[in-house]
Amino acid sequence: MQGATPKNPQPVISRTLISACILVTRNGFQKRFDEG
Question: Is there a contact between 12 and 6 (Cβ–Cβ < 8 Å)?
């Protein structure tokens, strides 16, 4: 994976954004469950 140099880096950026969104949503849901 690291050795490969993709010509279009957009997919990697989108992956990181999606993963970040998932982490944020997970944290938010956990907080709601803990509070409720």
Answer: yes
Predicted pLDDT at 3: 64
Q: pTM score, two decimals?
A: 0.51
Rg (CA), the chain: 15
**In b/e form, how buried is each residue of 7-33, taking b as 16+ CB within 10 angstroms?**
eeeeeeeeeeeeeeeeeeeeeeeeeee
Q: What is the pLDDT of residues 3-27, one digit of tens each?
A: 666 676 678 889 999 999 999 999 8
Of 15, 34, 33, the closest CA to residue 23 belongs to: 15
